[in-house]
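## retry 2 of 3
previous attempt timed out at serialization; input unchanged, resubmitting
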Amino acid sequence: MELTQTLEQKLRAQFGRPTGLAGRIAGWVMARRSSNRRRNAWAVSLLEVERDDRVLEVGFGPAVAIGELSRIAVDGHVCGIDHSEVRLRQAARRNAQAVRLGRVELRHGRAESLPAFEAPFDKVLAVNALPFCDRPAERLAELRRVLRAGGRIAVAYQPRGPGATAEAAATGGQEIAAALRHAGFCEVRLETLRLRPAVVCALGVNGLPPDNAQRSRAR
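## retry succeeded, writing output
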């Protein structure tokens, strides 16, 4: 029993911080799980991405949402960052054509230290990435700095593993919404997708004044 629990814990850890063969298996499972695909497609739909948008996804995982975004932003640019080199390689293979065409750019990095970008983004997405970050409000403030004035962010969360209930999802959603407000986002609201367990998505708008937005573009 104890050995089984240990193995389950190790496998579960691969979904957050994948490494080696076990990490590749976890990525394969995530990309094919129907609930995961529904969760990502739903989160993308809430962003209301337009065909010429610049979109950033933080913690793209199996790159399901990256594929959805690149199919919509055909005249724009989709950039993804993830801390896992395993996921980076999987995502590059899964989106090989869009990468070749220059419509998708995938980078190895962390939300804690965002790389430099040539221009601000119109939309930012994070799906089950925030729980793996230290000091979420600070991370959201960093994301706000790379988002244009009036740009939109969507942060989706679905609890997994022990204690994964609708109540846990609701609590997590409220915490994310509070973190968004603390980071300076406005028009914050919550949406819920009735899966088992439920998925919540906190949405906010970057209300940067024009002078700060201009400085953001110059970064």
